[in-house]
Amino acid sequence: MKKGPFQLVIVRHGESVWNKENRFTGWKDVDLSPKGIVEAQKAGKSLSELHLQFDLAFTSCLTRAIKTLNYILDEMHLNWLPVMKDWRLNERHYGGLTGLDKAETAAKHGEAQVKIWRRSFDTPPPQIEKNHPDHPVNDPRYKNVPKDLLPSGESLKDTAARFMPMWNEVISKEILNGKKVLIVAHGNSLRALIQHLENLSPEQIMEVNMPTGIPLMYTLDENLKVLEKQFVGDEAAVKAAMDTVASQGKKK
């Protein structure tokens, strides 16, 4: 095991088609929007300008994250980098909310309820049935995952419960061995990690908004405690991107 400090960079995928349409996406496999492609390329350029290097990358099994990672690696001339795709890095499963317009749902159920569904730590959305075509048991990419582990709808607490073992058993060990790691994933799987790294309470993590396509760079000590963190990008652009995420659950 090497001595710190250690480098970790995390990136939420670029804007997806359903981000643009303000829909609950979760495990629905939607593509990047044209803006999302630009965000992913910009993220790669920003990391390249800092002359950052990586030894390996982790991403989810969802197209929007995989493509974002590919655009970043392309900009950094790191297409050869080893990449591990894992379902445990997937977005939170939004269950019966999947595909619904967030603003319309806020108008119907109230902004407070939508904020609870979007941001609360332990309130899951309405569940979907296993015979629903969108249930992950019916998706071939998860055929090697035990069916009882595949969610029908998750809270952030549930998302953290499936992701944190991967962090503890795989990713953190690579970092402690001195590997420079890049993670490209989703708003909620990354919020689960942020909560752990920054030791945030359930109330504090409710207020954290992860912007699309803007890298967040951590410097960690030998106990993987945060020494320093910074978004890689223009400060005003980062704030504007966070505000956009925060306003998605409001009525129009």
Q: Would you give an account of this structure?
A:
The chain is of the alpha/beta class and 252 residues long. It has a single domain (6-249), classed as Phosphoglycerate mutase-like (Rossmann fold), CATH 3.40.50. It contains nine helices and six strands; from the N terminus they run βααβαβαααβααββα.
Features:
252 residues; 40% helix; 6 strands; Rossmann fold; 6-stranded mixed sheet; single chain; alpha/beta
How are the SSEs placed, and which strands pair?
Layout: E1 6-12, H1 17-20, H2 34-49, E2 56-59, H3 63-75, E3 83-85, H4 102-109, H5 111-119, H6 156-176, E4 181-185, H7 187-198, H8 202-206, E5 216-220, E6 226-231, H9 235-246
Parallel strand pairs: 1-4, 2-3, 2-4
Antiparallel strand pairs: 1-5, 5-6
Helix pairs in contact: 2-3, 4-5, 6-7
